[in-house]
Amino acid sequence: MAGEPLPRPDATLDGGELDCGSGLLLLIRNALEPLAAGGILLVTSREGSVKEDLPAWCRMVGHALLGTGEAGAAGTGFWLQKKGADAELAGDLARARDFVWSARTRWKQGLESRVTVRNHELAVGQPASFDTRDAAPAALELLLGAVGGALSAGLAWRLSREGLALRALEVVVKGRSRNILAFLGLGGDEHSGLAGLDVQIYLDCDGEQERLDALVRETVARCPVTNSLVHGAPVALHWRSI
């Protein structure tokens, strides 16, 4: 549409500073759902990575990106055209429900491994460490970080959906092992897993306390990471020599 004016949108979505991996795509799906096939959604974003990730997502799921433009204080505007049939959008949701996440871990040296997930690579140290400095975070620390990251993104998305201005958000997650020595074959039969998590959420946001409390609790209740811990995902183990 080079040289042509961009069409008037049927709906507008302010994505704020969310990136595509932190709830923006779900907001877009919800905003597109009530539009008729061919409807236009204007998405504004102040997050730079959206310029790369949103076009790729549109190509993957079949919506058309008609063009981009400056949107003033709202950042960059993206004009999306909904694809031809609501049934296709339902198919996207079905594929999301059936998606299998995957992580590949390779031992590197000593007690350090390298984990590859999609286009990211990260170092993981021993399962748990008590030193103040290590070459890589312990596996339990990454688990706590996953809980905090998922809750932070989920809460930011819900506040944005409610139109509540978020100024600052911090999640601190702490946990204590039932018996960490059990991992080394020491200290009795009690397992080495976490006895529980203590989650502190610090929130600077508009909104009534009662409504904010409901959103925080809903976020925790629907979080895929906390649900995996609370409901005890079974582990199917397969191994072979190579």
Structural summary, described in words:
By secondary structure, the protein is of the alpha+beta class. The chain is globular. The strands form three sheets. It has a four-stranded mixed sheet with strand order 1-2-4-3, covered by helices on one side. The longest helix has 23 residues.
Beta-sheet strand percentage? 25-35%
Contiguous uncertain segments of 5+ residues: none
Highest CATH level, the class of the largest domain? Alpha Beta
Mean pLDDT: 85
Instruction: Characterize the main sheet.
Output: 4 strands, mixed
Structural class estimated from helices and strands: alpha+beta
Give the beta-strand count. Answer: 9
Task: Kindly provide the radius of gyration, computed on alpha-carbon positions and rounded to a whole number of angstroms.
Answer: 22 Å
Please, what is the CATH homologous superfamily of the largest domain? K homology (KH) domain
In the sheet with the most strands, the strands line up as 1-2-4-3
Q: Number of helix segments?
A: 6
Q: Give the helix proportion (percent range).
A: 25-40%
C-alpha end-to-end distance: 54 Å
Write the CATH architecture name of the largest domain.
2-Layer Sandwich
Pattern of helices and strands: EHEHEEHEEEHEEHH
Shape: globular
What is the CATH topology assignment of the largest domain?
A: GMP Synthetase, Chain A, domain 3
Number of domains as seen in the coordinates: 2
